[in-house]
Amino acid sequence: MTLTKKYWMTSEICEKWVQKLDKELDGLAHQKEINQKLKNVTVFYLPPNTTSKLLPMDQGVIENFKICYRKRIVRKVITALENNQFMPKINLRQMISEISKAWNYEVTDRTIRNNFAKSLFFVSNENSASTEDEDDIPLEEL
């Protein structure tokens, strides 16, 4: 068993861990050989440096959420300035509230579905290229 600086896990460690996970999932309803020994888990190896292109949340959901949150904060600042008030001081509780509102009210199901479809997890029924809603527009363009 040899470890290099580039790899944190050997194939033996990976195989044991996945087999243990498979056994745990059985009670709950790094290679091709691993998959042959498993009943409830399928292991897929992603090519290096491809997670930002393959994982749904990296396809734009996180970016969309950040844009929605920032828009909420910018709106608070603009409202204060329009009312000739000082810049609002936002404490941690208010930030958490704005984060919650941005995720719950502004990141749409459609955005999440489209990003899962981009990652080829499933085929979206919507044609996202033909209809662009506000969730897909960068803050600079709004």
TrEMBL record:
One of its GO terms (molecular function) is DNA binding. Residues 4-116 form the DDE-1 domain. InterPro entries: CenT-Element_Derived, DDE_SF_endonuclease_dom. One of its GO terms (cellular component) is nucleus. Signal peptide: none annotated. PANTHER family: PROTEIN PDC2, TRANSPOSON. This is DDE-1 domain-containing protein. It comes from Araneus ventricosus.
